[in-house]
Design a protein that fits this description.
Layout: E1 4-9, H1 19-32, E2 36-43, H2 49-56, E3 61-66, H3 71-81, H4 86-90, H5 94-106, E4 111-115, E5 133-139, H6 142-152, H7 157-178, E6 181-184, H8 187-196, E7 202-204, E8 225-229, H9 235-247, H10 249-255, E9 260-264, H11 270-274, E10 281-285, H12 291-295, E11 299-302, H13 312-319, E12 324-326, E13 343-344, H14 348-360, H15 362-379, H16 382-385, H17 390-393
Parallel strand pairs: 1-2, 1-4, 2-3, 4-5, 5-6, 6-7, 8-9, 8-11, 9-10, 11-12, 12-13
Helix pairs in contact: 6-7, 13-15
Length: 408
């Protein structure tokens, strides 16, 4: 009989149109090829029949729990007031809890896996005490994300973010003590976690990219164009494009009067939409396929000032063979060599210089794109990145004592 896995995700894994969904979808596909997977997921937006059918194809049993509206934010605030984290309150669902309880009572699971610290506590039930493997995919170290937010936000939100970060760190440590294994997307995230929780059974399992889908294309490049791709109501992304437009783009546009900055992604905020009033800035918004926008751009820019883990937007642009100019933060999770596979910009002047170089030197741009695509093929194909997950479906596997070691 195949191993049986109970997989809990904080958002529906389909469509894979944002970082966490890309990861959970590929993990789900990988596990379903090796085990019977029962998937329980929260849905913070309407679920289409296409989404349901895609998930049903790769699961033995599926439960999608609607979870949207203002009530969850009220629960988040109450959770904070009661000494817990906002995150736990946001993901609180009696329906979800009931589904897990019912399934656990009538199914013997080989393993459980939760995506993110905010929902991991659901799987720590007495009905699941006999499960052989209890894993949590933290994805990123969320506590550090909130602590980073606190440094860049103004009062009073800086205090709220700081409190959330400290409480999440306590929660992460408690989860580490109760889990057989925890996963993060990079060695940098693993090292960060062990700095405050030294004996955590934590392993780096990197993100991959579909290199067949995101592949170089023989498409005409539009001169003097920059492109950014990301979910635009996500604070690190909205902060990135706002900072870039305010500090870098005016200098680029002054040098190249025909220059265009294409901001591509779903859910642009009012602040992001307002950037379209600047000369040469085009807020494209959501598109059915980001690849044409990547392929037609002279370069892809990733000016993130707040970044955790491995940025899928970087991997996808690299796989497409595009020259990339990137801030330092997203590179902490990637073992790239700046200057070879992409360009790193540490200052406003460097941003302008690197973009100008890519605009003007076609051969340099092609060199960067070729090196980027080759590096992704070698280091970030999903099949090889997810090999450590074989342990969770191996029923004879015995966890070593709290010592996991270095993963892929």
């Amino acid at each position: 009989m195949k191993p049986r896995i109970l997989y809990l995700t904080h958002r529906t894994p389909w469509p894979p149109d944002r970082g966490d969904r890309i990861r959970t979808w590929n993990i789900l596909k990988y596990l379903s090829a090796r085990a019977d997977v029962d998937l329980v997921c929260l849905a913070d937006e309407p679920v289409t029949q296409t989404t349901r059918m895609a998930l049903e194809k790769v699961t033995r049993r599926l439960a999608i729990v609607p979870h949207s509206g203002k009530r969850r934010y009220i629960r988040g605030a109450l959770s904070l007031a009661c000494g817990r984290t906002v995150t736990e309150g946001l993901f609180e669902s009696r329906v979800l809890n009931s589904v897990i309880k019912q399934w656990a009572q009538n199914t013997t699971y080989t393993a459980t896996l939760a995506s993110s610290s905010g929902i991991a506590s659901y799987l720590q039930r007495t009905e699941l005490d006999g499960v052989r493997h209890s894993w949590i995919d933290l994805i990123d170290v969320d506590s550090q994300k909130w602590l980073d937010y606190s440094k860049s936000a103004a009062l009073p939100m800086s205090l709220v973010y700081g409190l959330e970060g400290r409480r999440l760190r306590q929660l992460e440590c408690r989860l580490a003590a109760k889990s057989d294994r925890m996963l993060v997307v990079s060695e940098a995230e693993r090292s960060l976690f062990t700095d405050f929780c030294a004996d955590a059974p934590i392993q780096a399992v990197g993100n991959g990219v579909d290199t067949d889908y995101f592949a170089p294309a023989n498409m005409q490049v539009k001169p003097h164009t920059c492109c950014f791709v990301g979910v635009l109501n996500y604070l690190p992304n909205s902060d990135a494009v706002s900072w870039f437009c305010e500090n870098v783009w005016p200098k680029v546009h002054e040098k190249y009067a025909d220059a265009e900055f294409q901001i591509v992604g779903k859910s642009p905020t009012k602040e992001v939409l307002a950037l379209a009033e600047m000369p040469g800035v085009n807020v494209v918004g959501p598109v059915p396929d980001v690849r044409p926008w990547l392929h037609q751009s002279s370069c892809v820019v990733v000016p993130l000032r707040i970044a955790r883990g491995v940025q899928n937007k970087v991997l996808e642009a690299m796989a497409c063979g595009r020259p990339i100019v990137c801030s330092p933060e997203p590179l902490k999770g990637l073992a790239v060599e700046p200057g070879l596979q992409l360009l790193r910009a540490d200052s406003i002047d460097q941003w302008v210089d690197h973009i100008s170089r890519v605009f003007e030197d076609r051969f340099r741009a092609e060199e960067l794109g070729i090196a980027a695509s080759a590096w992704v093929h070698l280091n970030h194909r999903w099949e090889s990145c997810l090999e450590p997950l074989n342990d969770i479906v191996n029923t004879s596997f015995s966890e070593p004592e709290r010592e996991i070691g270095v993963g892929k």
